[in-house]
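Researcher: Please translate sequence to C-alpha cells.
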Amino acid sequence: MPYALYQALITTGLLHVIALSGTNISILIDLVAKVTLFLGRKISIILTVSIIVAFVMMVGPSPTVVRAAMMGAITLIAVYLGRKAWSMLSLFLASGVMLLIKPEWIGEISFQLSFLATLGIILGNDLVKRKYTRTLGEKLVYALKVNLALTLSAQLFTFPIILLNFQRISLISPVSNLLVGWVIQPIMILGLVTGILGWIWMPLGILPAWLVWVPLSYFLGIVELLAKVPGAAVEL
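Model: Translation complete:
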C-alpha cells in the first residue's frame, strides 16, 4: 500500500476499514445466511458456522477475527436453540474464552480496540431509539443518525487506547465513517466475487471487477479528500 494512502487512512480514522475485523465477519454471516436460507434454518446455520471457521483458518486467527467469529457463532447457536441472543453476553463470553486460551492477547492493542469498540457499539445500539420510518427520506435520515451515534460511541470507548498508543486523534473520523461506511459491504462482496470468478477463469472476473471499481474509487476519493482538510487530525 502506498505510504500516502496509509497515512490518509490514519488521518481520516478509517484505518480499521482495511483491517480484518468484526465487520468482515458480520458481512460474511449475513451473506451466507441469506444465500443458504432456502435450505432450512438448521442447515443454514451449520453451513454459516462452518464457513466462519474456514474464513478464520484462511486469514489467520488474529484477536479481532477470532472475537468476531466466536460472537457470530454464539449468536447463530442461540438462534438454532431458540434462545435470545444477548450481544453483551456474547462479547464477554467470547473474550473470556480467548483470554483463557491465550492470556497474552490482553496486552495486544488489536484485542483492546476490538473489545472496546464492540462494547461501545453494543451500548450505543441499546441507547438508540427505534423509530418507524415510512418515506425514503425518513429512512435515510434515521440511518445516518444511527450510524453517527454508533460511530461516536465506538470512538468514545477506544479514545483512551488510541491516545495512549498513537498520540493522534482523528477529528474528522465521524464524517469520514458516515460517508464511506455504506460502501464497505458492496466492496467486500463484489471483491470476493471477483476473486472467486477470476480464480476459476480470468475473463469471468472482469465484470465484477468493473463493478467493484465504482464504490472503491468513491472510497479512495473520500479518503484523499478528507485527509487534506485542515485540522482533520491532531497529534498530541
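Researcher: Any highlights?
Model: The chain has one domain: 3-235.
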